[in-house]
């Protein structure tokens, strides 16, 4: 009899709680985009993490929030789908935040067991941590356990995985243990470019942008990546290009460096920008973009 364990863990919580950062931290590889700005993640991403004989498939999800915009509704559906598939939910609550988002989550009466991860604990003092733990105390019959973490603390990873594996059923591995994600390289590349846009462009442009990888040409020495950024308005094109092309240049360099780090190869990148009015509001376009 094999002692293999394998299961799906949905990572959920409000925008900016640290969900995508957690995935990257667990993998020691950057596959999910992270941003200081909220609502960065749009689609489900997964990270496959091996710990002893346990295979975890962590599912990153878009932050839970209420908005009428069609794109946001698609994002909420992604989160609901991820929860439906999971053996365990990790509910992320920043240590610096109030409990409201956790109460909202409980009010939805989740059927899958959950663990609360108190994130960003490097931002608070020990005294504040104790206060936070006592705030959660009245809810302890709801969660399996509560674990304070910080992605700045490398050693905490084994402790966390050790706690989580108790909730993963005995089951043969779902994926090749060598794999770090079932995400296609192209999707990861597109996320890198999206992260670069969040990094260098302010206001509404990041939220109005979609990235398509048109073509990847792989060669022995260098891979060539051709991408298009779709924006909603003509003037957003100019913002992305920047004066004398300096913004798009910064975006290209930032994304290229992450691609080179991931692949260990030299990358050539060419990004075009197109305008497609209302892509975030048009259901057909959203479906065509893979939502
Ligand atoms: N100090 C500190 N910052 C963190 C930690 N974890 C995440 N962050 C920061 O929190 C911000 C948001 O992180 P993300 O991982 O993008 O958050 P998210 O929950 O995926 O956000 P959405 O995709 O928008 O829902 C980023 O600036 C991260 O660098 C942590 O443990 N400590
Ligand atoms: Mg995210």
Bound molecules: guanosine-5'-triphosphate, magnesium ion
| Strand arrangement, major sheet | 2-3-1-4-5-6
Just name the CATH architecture of the largest domain: 3-Layer(aba) Sandwich
Low-confidence stretches: none
User: Count of DSSP helices?
Assistant: 10
- CATH class annotation of the largest domain: Alpha Beta
| First-to-last CA distance | 40 Å
- The helical percent reads 25-40%
Query: In the CATH hierarchy, what is the superfamily of the largest domain?
Result: P-loop containing nucleotide triphosphate hydrolases
Task: Please describe what this structure looks like.
This protein has 291 residues and is of the alpha/beta class. It has 2 domains: 5-165, Rossmann fold; 185-288, K homology (KH) domain (GMP Synthetase, Chain A, domain 3, 2-Layer Sandwich). It is built from 10 helices and 9 strands. The chain has helices spanning 19-27, 70-85, 100-107, 126-136, 156-165, 185-200, 205-208, 234-241, 246-263, 283-288; strands at 5-12, 45-51, 54-60, 88-94, 114-119, 146-148, 210-218, 222-231, 266-275. A 6-stranded mixed sheet has the order 2-3-1-4-5-6, sandwiched between helices. It has a 3-stranded mixed sheet with strand order 7-8-9. α4 (126-136) links the parallel β5 (114-119) and β6. The longest helix is centred in the last third of the chain and has 18 residues, at 246-263. The radius of gyration is 20 Å and the shape is globular. The structure holds guanosine-5'-triphosphate and magnesium ion (MG). Magnesium ion binds next to α1.
